[in-house]
Amino acid sequence: MKKPIIAVDVDDVLAKSAQGFADFSNAMWGHSLTADDFDEDWMKVWGTDLAETRRRAEIFHNDEVFSGFGHFPEAISVLVDLKQRYKLVVATSRRTVVEGVTRQWLDTHYGGIFDGVFFTGIYDVPGDTGERHRDRLTRTKNDLLLELKADYLIDDQLKHCFATGEHGVEAILFGNYPWSRHRELPAHVTRCRDWAEVEAYFAKRG
Ligand SMILES: [Mg+2]
């Protein structure tokens, strides 16, 4: 029988990226951010204008920075166990400029677990709506999951969990983060605050 597919997000699900973002911002630009200050809107977090935000984002998207992100050691045994019953793939909206370092980082910390690593490429060309990029720009994580025929998504971002849930994908809203903590969830989205709760969620499904 074909194994159901679980798509797993990278940032703040497999990688402690908000912490990495805060640490780098503090060291580089003198902020005093914590992981809890993180928001996908970096302009808001840094208090910068669009041009400066783009300039900083270029500096941040660096192999050395991304290779230094922490991981979730407690996720490994959960994923190894799930791999027996599910096909595990990675689905990320990270820019493809960090694709190489992301693949290496996953090999280092989660080697042998995932059957594929997929990038939406949606953030690759900010502000460029040229024809040659149109397909990539319009491919959301939801589009990617439908292409992959994923049955489950584990992701910390509400927008992805809400969007995929509407298309029959069971979404696990991961983490106990300020950006999702106090939100009501629809029926197809289940909150799992940590990897132990993810384990318990799938244990109930057999
Ligand atoms: Mg994420």
Topology, element by element:
Layout: E1 5-8, H1 17-29, H2 42-46, H3 50-60, H4 63-67, H5 73-83, E2 87-92, H6 99-110, E3 117-119, H7 134-137, H8 141-148, E4 152-155, H9 158-165, E5 170-174, E6 189-192, H10 195-204
Parallel strand pairs: 1-2, 1-4, 2-3, 4-5, 5-6
Summarize the model shown.
This protein is of the alpha/beta class. It folds into two domains: 5-16 and 70-204, 3-Layer(aba) Sandwich (Rossmann fold); 18-67.
Tags for this model:
alpha/beta; 10 helices; 6 strands
Give average pLDDT, whole number. 90
Q: Cα-atom Rg, whole angstroms?
A: 17 Å
Number of strands: 6
Quaternary structure of the protein: single chain
Order of helices and strands: EHHHHHEHEHHEHEEH
Shape: globular
Instruction: Quickly count the domains.
Output: 2
Helix content: 40-55%
For the largest beta sheet, what order do the strands appear in spatially? 3-2-1-4-5-6
- End-to-end separation in angstroms reads 15 Å
User: Quick one: biggest sheet?
Assistant: 6 strands, parallel
The count of helical stretches stands at 10
Look at the structure and give the CATH class of the largest domain.
Alpha Beta
Detail the poorly predicted runs: 126-137
Proportion of beta-strand residues: 5-15%
Here the CATH topology of the largest domain equals Rossmann fold
